[in-house]
Amino acid sequence: MSGLSIQELLGEKEAGLDLEILAGESGLGKFINSPRIQKPGLALAGYTTNLHPDRIQVLGSTELSYLAHLPPEKAEENLAQICTLDISCFIITKGQTAPESLIGHAERAGIPLLRTHHQSSTFISQITKFLEERLLPSTTVHGVLVDVLGVGVLLMGKSGIGKSECALDLVLKGHRLVADDVVKVRLKLPAVLFGEGVDLLHYHMEIRGLGIINIKHLFGVAAIRERKKIDLAVELVEWEDGRQYDRLGLEDESYTLLGIGIPLLRIPVRQGRNVTTIVEVAARNQLLKEMGYHSAIEFQDRLEKRMAETAHLHAHTIIGDNLE
Are residues 158 and 35 in the same domain? Predict the structure, then answer.
């Protein structure tokens, strides 16, 4: 699980957290490693046993009201005790004014003290969802991710095999590019993989002999997607004479990413093979499989049934001839 710094959290705009810093700027380099949130009500009363310093501590109206009703000496003592625990950060909700004592302790301890205008319940829901997504495991894959008929197809293969050219051809057929060259893959619970492009390469594609092109500018916003669930991995491999390739589609393979297996197809590439069409048909076939229809298995069942019927007729003929 990767961490998220308080500086990154403070700079996050798309999630609508609306955060501002009130104190403790020296602690902006601290990291959040848990998506769970805590409201430190008991800790403000002096019981810090079950306080989790690695979690964001949310202070709403109840917490600040209780702090205000404590004798000043007791409030100072309890805040000092909490701030010795290296809290990741405090966040005050509803745009409330932070107590001077809290500002002072947070500044001296280097604990970021942030504020949002959101209600506590709304903010906790928003930031929990945001952290669950950002803190889940992620990795990068060398390949191209394309949305083909709603199926997220991850094209892989060694450099120069033709992944980008295949993806470009798919875009020309009306499908959508998600990422080229570097695909950032995130795990979303319980067992779903999502791919997206890295910031620098978004919407761009490298075509040897042509250079870097911008798919969004060339083909419009309908030709791109920000992110897509990965449903199928396709590895492009060089054709080898004499090598046996799967001709029936009965050999189900999988490709493992972040501990999750996704269906894998190996497509041999050689002159004269229309790889783009094969990938498109593979996506259509994957849709059928997800609906419970497996063409290869159905063909095998029909073949075995036909062989059994033929064997039965042949045996009946032999027995009948002997009886005569």
Answer: no
Residues that constitute the known binding site for ATP: 157-164
Split into its structural domains, the chain has a count of 3
Domain of residue 310: give its range.
Answer: 300-324
Q: Which residues are CB-contacts of 26 (< 8 A; sequence separation ≥ 6)?
A: 110
Catalytic residues: 142, 163, 181, 247
- For the annotated binding site for Mg(2+), the residues are 164, 206
88-119 burial: b if 16+ Cβ within 10 Å, else e: bbbbbbbebebbebbbebbbebbbbbbbbebe
* Pair 214, 250 in one domain: yes
Write the pLDDT tens digit of every residue in 182-199: 999 988 877 899 999 988
Question: Do 282 and 148 share a structural domain?
Answer: yes
What the block records as the tokens of 68 is: 């205000």
Task: Identify whether the C-beta of residue 180 lies closer than 8 Å to the C-beta of residue 156.
Answer: no
Collapsed DSSP state (helix, strand, coil) of residue 115: strand
Q: Which residues are annotated as a binding site?
A: 157-164, 206
Residue pLDDT, tens place only, 8-62:
999 888 888 999 999 999 999 999 988 899 999 999 999 999 999 989 999 999 9
